[in-house]
Amino acid sequence: MPFPFRNQPVTPRIGAPEESLASVLTEVRGLELQPGRLVTDVLSGGFRSSFRGGGVEFSDVREYVEGDDPRTVDWNVTARLGRPFVKRFVEERERTIVFALDLGSGMRAGLGVWSARQAAARFCVCLASMAIENHDRVGFVAADAARGVCRFVLPKKGAGHVLRIARDVVELPVGTGASAVDLLLQQVAGRLRRRAVVFLCSDFAGDAPLRTLSSCARRHDVVAVRVLPEEVLRPPPALLAVSDPGTGAVTTLDFAAPVVRRAWQARVHAWRQRRDFEFGQAGVDCIDLELPAQATIDAILVPLLAFFRRRERRGGR
Questions:
Q1: Of the given ranges (44-48, 192-196, 232-236, 272-276), which has the lowest mean pLDDT?
Q2: pLDDT at position 190
Q3: In sequence order, what are the beta bridge partners of 250?
Q4: What is the mean pLDDT of the chain?
């Protein structure tokens, strides 16, 4: 049955109420009230150990020993002291984190308390809070197909800078155009010189291939954050309008009919497999955020903790 992937209620969703950074921060900071700050300690520890620094920096020099790479010889010191010395480098501990946010119209989806857009915002604010604590550089880019790039902020350090990015993450409006994942990846690959950890937040709807994913992932540590509304995974038994994420064409389907539900589930399963294959081919990790029916920050924390544990077992990237 050739219906597209995205669906929405027959009565158009107006969108969840507008939110402020303060209200989202209140939810995230509520974690600190838990006994012993267990959750925040585990999250921060996982964050620090899961990502490497963005490069290497000069440390000092030492005398050459057999087996050292001749390319590391410091010729100035060698000439001054009359015997060979080599440069030593250490990995930078400072990380560069970039949030790449898809503001395509599909991010309005979500029949529960949060839209896909709101779930993605909470995910980014959780990580932004950890970045402040760890003194990391944070950048931001957002786009949709109709408006193009809505915001591009180069990575910098400082609580004020990170909180301004967090405000944009929460408050920038969703557009009317389709997803612009390739445009986001092009911006990251073309404008960021320092290697970064890029959290690419999108519903990844549609069948169009992600053409720039592999090239961007060669330069940066890209993590796909796939937001999955409840109606995509488990549509309610009702009439729903299904829209094509590329053309906007709308078809009404009866999800109370078993044949429709089976066809829908097969379509969603095939779509997820295609995307998983693309992520795997590009060497990109994926975090699936399933939108909850009720507001609970656990919907963000559980997949995030699972991701950190996977990374730790692999020793980072």
A1: 44-48
A2: 93
A3: 243
A4: 81
121 vs 16, 172, 245, CA distance in Å?
13, 10, 21
**Which amino acid appears at position 26 of this protein?**
T
Topology of the domain comprising 6-52+94-314: Rossmann fold (3.40.50)
Can you tell me the distance from the alpha carbon of 161 to that of 97, in angstroms, rounded to the nearest whole number? 13
pTM score of the predicted model: 0.78
Contacts of 20 (CB under 8 A, 6+ apart): 170, 171
Asked whether the predicted pLDDT for residue 5 surpasses 80, the reply is: no
Does pLDDT of 42 surpass 80?
A: no
Nearest C-alpha neighbor of 121 from the set 101, 105, 139: 101
Burial class (CB in 10 A: 0-12, 13-18, 19+), 315: exposed
How is the chain split into domains, by residue range?
6-52+94-314, 56-91
**Which has the closest alpha carbon to 201: 260, 114, 287, 307?**
287
